[in-house]
Amino acid sequence: MSVRVQIIETPELVDVELAAIDKITQLQTALRHRTAEPRRWVGQMRRQAQAAAIRGSNSIEGFVVSLEDAAAVVAGATASEETVAVEAVRSYQRAMTYVLQAARDPYFEYSTGLLKVLHFITTEFDLGAHPGLIRPSDIFVVNATTGEAEYTGPDVELAAPLVDALCHHLNTATGEPLVDAAMAHLNLVKIHPFKDGNGRMSRILQTLVLTRSGTLVPEFASIEEYLGTNTLGYYNILRSVGGRHWTSDLDARDWIRYCLNAHHIQSTMLTRRIAEAEELWGILESAANDAGANDRSVAVLYDAIMGHRVRNSSYIESVKSTTGHQVGKQTATNDLRVLVTNGLLDPRGANRGAHYVASTKLLALRRARPAKAIADLFD
Predict the structure, then answer these.
(1) Please, are residues 152 and 208 in contact by the beta-carbon 8 Å criterion?
(2) What is the pLDDT of residues 76-97, one digit of tens each?
(3) Range list of H helices, 222-341
(4) What is residue 152's DSSP assignment?
(5) Cα–Cα distance between 229 and 44 in angstroms, integer?
(6) For the ranges 44-48, 135-139, 287-291, 357-361, which has the lowest average pLDDT?
(7) What top-level class would CATH report for the domain 62-257?
């Protein structure tokens, strides 16, 4: 007897949800226009947003790294130390690079094979996760504190057919991209088709759907930073939507509203950060000019004032990402020496641990603004 394969369906949107989507779309349209202009600070913002998203998504799974190390991974530089968490972040970053390329493919289509490739890239550092393979048995999500199963996924023989059904739906979906992406996330995490890495894969898939819609680049489209910062709320909404066992017959409205609210908050925060970055870049250009430093040094001053440690290697990467030019180690050393001599950077450590941090003089250039509360869309 055949078993009917049905994924979780999208509920019909009501006026308050459509109004929320319109508000988010306005924010994202403004973001797209602000970041489409060829300004050097945009590259730095994209790197920081990607680092924050990757760090946030991996922290949910217990792979915790500093924002500095996440930024180093994004830049292709060396982290402060090699750990399993750093390797997880590096694998995730490679998966997101794949997402960016796939989103540009005019012949793109969702498939189980695509998701298996993404899973392999994301989990290849851990062979115990069976990278690139659909799980070989039934699966349970266990509470680490109580040892009890909090959720039971669909039977193993349904895992692959359900993923196929999800991919077919995404290839033919014509709904609101924000909602389609949220439902893709919910379906994949509830199907739980892999032995491990299902949460990361669901968040990657959500970002892929958003990126394919063309609304924003992945760094600004995802809600992974928000989810990482609000992990408890994220877990709670996933628990409350769908119960303790797989079923396609559930009401996903609360999940959709949760994701829309996350997009609103994330887009509002990015809008504020971009306004600050634009202003700050001009201030740093003036400071570099007053110090007699090369204009290419502004990028590293921006990194330092944002709290990142600066190394010779990260200087080279920052210059390349903002100007497109490659400088050598000696040039980087000379440029950094000018910044130290003029009191903009302070040296720390020695030998392999040598790095630079923002000086008191440099930090004083950043104008602190009080954080403003962001209203919930569905209050």
Answers:
(1) no
(2) 777 778 899 999 999 999 999 9
(3) 224-229, 231-240, 253-290, 298-305, 312-323, 329-341
(4) E
(5) 21
(6) 44-48
(7) mainly alpha
What does the alpha-carbon distance between residue 250 and residue 9 come to, in Å, rounded to a whole number? Answer: 8
Stretch 92-111: mean pLDDT: 91
User: Which tokens go with 92?
Assistant: 């995730």
- The span from the CA of 190 to the CA of 199, in Å, is 9
Neighbours of 341 (CB within 10 A): 12
pLDDT in tens, 1-13: 345 689 999 999 9
Question: DSSP class of residue 297?
Answer: G
Tell me how far apart the alpha carbons of residues 245 and 177 are, in angstroms, rounded to a whole number. 27
Pick from 273, 265, 270, 287: nearest CA to 362: 287
- Give the type of residue at 7: I
Using alpha carbons, list the distances in angstroms from residue 218 to 116, 192, 255: 20, 23, 21
Cβ–Cβ < 8 Å for 305, 282:
no
Q: By C-alpha distance, which of 350, 354, 356 is closest to 301?
A: 356
Residue 370 has a pLDDT of 67
Alpha-carbon distance 171 to 225, whole Å?
Answer: 27
Q: Could you tell me the maximum CA-CA distance found in the chain, to the nearest angstrom?
A: 79
Long-range contacts from 137-140, C-beta under 8 angstroms, 24+ separation? 139/192, 139/195
**Burial class of residue 119 (count of CB atoms within 10 Å of its CB; 0-12, 13-18, 19+):** buried
378/65 Cα distance (integer angstroms): 33
Query: Distance between CA 275 and CA 271 in Å, rounded?
Result: 6
φ/ψ of residue 4, rounded to 5 = -70, 125
pLDDT digits (tens, 9 = 90+) for 61-72: 999 998 888 887
Q: Tell me the mean pLDDT in the region 247-273.
A: 94
Cut 0.85: pTM above it: yes
Which spans in 10-39 are helix H? 15-36
Long-range contacts of 369-375 (CB under 8 A, 24+ apart): 369/272, 369/276, 372/272, 374/264, 374/265, 374/268, 374/269
Tally Cβ neighbours within 10 Å of residue 273: 16
Kindly tell me the number of DSSP H helices and DSSP E strands found in the chain: 16, 4
Question: Residue 218 above 60 pLDDT?
Answer: yes
Q: Contact 357/309 with Cβ under 8 angstroms?
A: yes
